């Protein structure tokens, strides 16, 4: 099977690690070899959390610059920061709802212009799917469901060798039962948003 390389970037607390865990479980259900690694950069303080997932026969968990087949960004500035991992064939999925860093909130930094951010990503990659995943999570009655919204969008693209049913079964196994219904709703809203993009 052809290798597929996925990078997920988020800010601490957005559920990147749960999303990665769901995808890992779905790969196991599908009988697809998977390797995963994570970087936690001051995650509890709003720092970056990055996951690298390699589907298929891979010897390493490293995804070098320009190698990602797909990049999923839970926060727009983090998506921009990870753009170096992309190439002209990469699919990028990003949430457009910013989480302002501390430095911006105290007036010591400037947040990137979202229009410029879109333009930069579109110039470098094959496809950009950008929408307000936070609003869809809220619509699903799960403000913490941005991760599930973006999983839905990711699976809709067909880039990864996983089916909707495999991912939903993995969600059933990996998420808390009290959140399952809203997580499934968030997943479907993200799937639909990517389909419409």
What does this structure look like?
This protein is of the alpha/beta class. It has one domain: Pyruvate-ferredoxin oxidoreductase, PFOR, domain III (Pyruvate-ferredoxin Oxidoreductase, domain 3), CATH 3.40.920.10. It has a 6-stranded mixed beta sheet, sandwiched between helices. Helix 6 packs across helix 8. The protein starts with a strand and ends with a helix. The mean pLDDT is 92.
If helices are DSSP runs of H or I spanning 4 or more residues, what is the number of helices?
Answer: 8
How much is the average pLDDT?
92
Question: Which fold name fills CATH's third level, the topology?
Answer: Pyruvate-ferredoxin Oxidoreductase, domain 3
Our estimate of the beta-strand percent is 15-25%
Total count of strands: 6
CATH homologous superfamily (4th level) name: Pyruvate-ferredoxin oxidoreductase, PFOR, domain III
- Radius of gyration, in angstroms, nearest whole number: 16 Å
Class from secondary-structure proportions: alpha/beta
CATH architect. name: 3-Layer(aba) Sandwich
What is this structure's SSE topology?
Layout (H helix, E strand, L loop, with lengths): L3 E8 L4 H15 L3 E7 L7 E8 L14 E4 L2 H6 L9 E5 L6 H4 L8 H11 L2 E5 L1 H7 L6 H12 L6 H11 L2 H20 L1
Parallel strand pairs: 1-4, 4-5, 5-6
Antiparallel strand pairs: 1-3, 2-3
Helix pairs in contact: 1-7, 5-6, 5-8, 6-8
What's a concise summary of this model?
Helices cover 44% and strands 19% of the residues.
Summarize this structure as a short list of keywords or feature phrases:
197 residues; alpha/beta; Pyruvate-ferredoxin Oxidoreductase, domain 3; six-stranded mixed beta sheet; 6 strands
């Amino acid at each position: 099977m052809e290798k597929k390389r996925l990078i997920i970037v988020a800010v601490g607390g957005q559920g990147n690690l749960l999303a990665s865990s769901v995808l890992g479980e779905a790969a196991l259900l599908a009988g697809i070899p998977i390797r995963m690694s994570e970087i936690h950069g001051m995650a509890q303080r709003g720092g970056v959390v990055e996951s690298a997932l390699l589907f298929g026969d891979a010897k390493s968990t490293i995804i070098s610059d320009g190698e990602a087949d797909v990049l999923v960004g839970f926060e727009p500035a983090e998506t921009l920061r990870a753009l170096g991992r992309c190439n002209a064939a990469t699919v990028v999925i990003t949430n457009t709802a910013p989480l302002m860093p501390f430095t911006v909130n105290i007036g010591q930094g400037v947040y990137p212009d979202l229009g410029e951010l879109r333009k930069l990503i579109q110039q470098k990659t094959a496809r950009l799917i950008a929408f307000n995943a936070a609003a869809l999570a809220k619509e699903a009655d799960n403000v913490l469901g941005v991760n599930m919204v973006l999983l839905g969008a990711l699976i809709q693209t067909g880039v990864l060798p996983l089916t909707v049913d495999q991912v939903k079964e993995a969600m059933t196994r990996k998420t808390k039962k009290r959140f399952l219904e809203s997580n499934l709703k968030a997943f479907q809203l993200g799937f639909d948003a990517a389909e419409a993009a």
